[in-house]
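Why this split exists: single-chain examples teach little about how molecules sit against one another. For that reason, every record in the complexes split bundles all components of an assembly together and asks for one structure covering all of them. Below is a record exactly as it appears in the raw files.
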Amino acid sequence: MSELQLEESRVKEAKEAKAQILDMESLNNPAAMKLYRRLDGILILVLFTFLTLGIQIQFTLTAGDWDYWVDWKDRRWWPLVTPLTLLMPIGAFTYGIWQRVRLPIMATALTTLLCLVAWGSHYLNFYKFTYFPLTFVFPATYIGVGILLDCALVMTRSLVVSAFIGAGLFGALVYPLNWPLIAAYRTAVEFNGTLLSLADLMGYEYIRTTTPEYLRIIESSTLRTFGGSVVPLTAVFAGFVSIVVYAIFLWVGSYVNKLVTFAKRIM
Amino acid sequence: MGVRATKHIMMAVKKMRSRLGLAWVVLSALVLFSGDVLAHGERAQLASMRMRTVHWFDTQVTPLQAKVGDTVTLTGKFIPSVYWPETLPSIAAMAFLNVGVPGPTFLRVHSEVNGVPMMRSTAFPLGKVYEYKVVMRARIPGRYHVHPLINVENAGSLIGKGTWLEIDKADTDAPFVNNATVLTGETVDLETYGLGGVIGWHLVWIAMGVAWLLFWLVRKELFIPRFMRIRALGADRANELLTKKDFVVSAMFFTLTLTIILTGYLWAEWKYPLTIPLQTGKVGVLGLDVPDGNLKIEVDSASYKLDGRSLTMHAKMTNNGERPLRIDEFITANIRFINPKVAEGKIVEGEEMVARNGLTVSVDVINPGETKDVVIVASDTLWEQYRMTGLIQDPDSRFAGLLFYGDDQGKRYYQEVGGSILPSYF
């Protein structure tokens, strides 16, 4: 490095140090704090709007039918697919927000916003416009597991350790979290001499022209079981895969963060 | 800002206003003067695909006028074509008998094919006859075009002939009820059953989520101040921003959340002690043999006139039966071409896509033991109307259809005919 470059670097560092001192001083300035609060408010509004739209589109594209219909919420695929798809944006956004402002909110924010927007969408699109009863199209909830993931992050203060505890619980507990919502529709009914759950019966009775029965990706009979215990096995597997997916998307988040530095450099 | 710039802006705003106004007028006109959306894609698929997939016939919907809560029955028959395109996933692998209606405007209360209930997916081997029945209860008032429909896995939907239905409001204003009796003996209304619990638990979790977010977002220093502090502290000391209170509250939320999840699970187990997994599987259904009346048909050639809206078929027919036979009808792609010399053509109320005088046959009768060269011409504007002349654009110029004939005792027979087809330009 030439002397000129060294000098430039020193000047830059001095400027940054001065800026940081000014920043810290501004935190004691009531007028500056008022401005920050306003900007924070705008930031929350923009961020949450973006997150709401983003999570709705992402979740619809990756787990749409599992969330739309009560006769898709099975014991094997739904509790596996939905946490995985949710943990992708959660992992990516958590990294940035945690590294920059130490706020453990992304899992709860995304799951809560998804719940609210899903209710709005299901109510308008399925109930009001296409006449499905809400009993057949209510969305699932993931807020509980989102809170657990965020809490794990605060308590462990580590993205890696929280990936094991929080993401593991996120994947494992989707089914028990939603069981109070869906259990009613798993009651047995006899229909034309065939055993059906109420959810299956609703899927048959409420006509979906382009969603035939065979299209459902749900649990089917298999020899690959462990004493017939589907729910616990799926929970363990979903927990494990959730840890991996969350870790991968934390890495994606870190990579995106580096792009910001790169963008600054080229600008 | 200069006066010129202001003028420019005003002019741009005026221009935009007039364009928006024009767009509004056009949109309003479209809404006001556009016709109903009538079709479920009857004409959308390739002509050769419609001719060689499923032959629907004897489709009937009764009654054509009903009230909410009334029962409507859809019946008919179909034959999956033996000329089924090899490029298309087969109906003989996985299929589902469905109804083409706008969503759950009807409640499907029963469906069967050849007497087998059709709640589940099935398969329909080619070249066999399947008699279906779908019973529905009207749920939402309106005017609907109802079709029988078969979904074929990885291929798409194949629809039969549509029939218009008028559904009026029920006599009472009572909400629609869809009762089901579960195996424990309880009768529940599927329109509302369990909804209170669903909404209640959702509210609990939304409250928890909002509480957690408020705890972190309603504080003196949020994004910008925290960002500044972390920048000043450095990445290694960033955790100093988290206080003991944050830790305690998080631990409380963690414990409370786990407790609520466990409580909810136990509550559901207590409230619904007898539950089963979602049921799925495939049912088998046996097809019936085609009643061909011992008439052997060999199609020699077939052509269609591009401008004449007609299909001409040359066939050698041998009557190996004991009664004389007359050809009275040809069906392809849901269009019925009727031979007026032989049959009046029984047309059910509300039936569409019928060419009453559409079939000309060169031979009146084929007597027992006779072999005759027969020229059959199916001609009508329906070829054009249902975009059948588009055969020339199809990458696979083959056709198929059902030929109907009867004996002197009024017995009805039919079988499928098909093969290559050539365009005739003149």
